[in-house]
Amino acid sequence: MFLANIFINRNYDKPRSREINKKFLSHYQHKKILELGPQRYPMKSYYPSIKTFDIDPRMKPDILGDADNMDMIKNDTYDVVYSCHFLEHVYNPEKVLKECNRVLKPGGILYFCVPVVDINRIWKDGDEWNTHQHHFTKMNITNLLNSTGFKLVKFEYRLWIKPIILEVFLGNLLKKGDIFFVAEKKS
Length: 187
Prior knowledge:
The protein is an alpha/beta fold. Helix content is 25%, strand content 30%.
């Protein structure tokens, strides 16, 4: 337990992924950003101009709907579509990414974070049931992006450990942790 506390980043109140996502989005804060499935930790709390999109009315999204059919959003509306720990929960990620492509402006950026999970699973997290419909690897993400009109720009695994400088190195070496990827809409 002592060694785990030294090496494993267990700061649940301020997870590293939120800080990394906040830093990435800071470069686009004056652009039009759509956040899919923000749930309890929307980036809108840091950048109020972000529009949130969610299927759950309890989350009080700016736009209520299902991400595999965003007909209420015009084509070529957003500069960035962002999501963290959302895509693994949808039934048809290809359909969702096609919709992301449609609502993104030409050259728009897709920035997603998904967990590395090697099996589909259901588990109880507090009072809520979590379900992962899909697991992702670099190969299936690349194929999915190519088939939906995107070009992969950046891909990295991050293993949530201390010291922070080892997150990407060990994540990529072990292919564990979370996957962060950036893609650009093909012209």
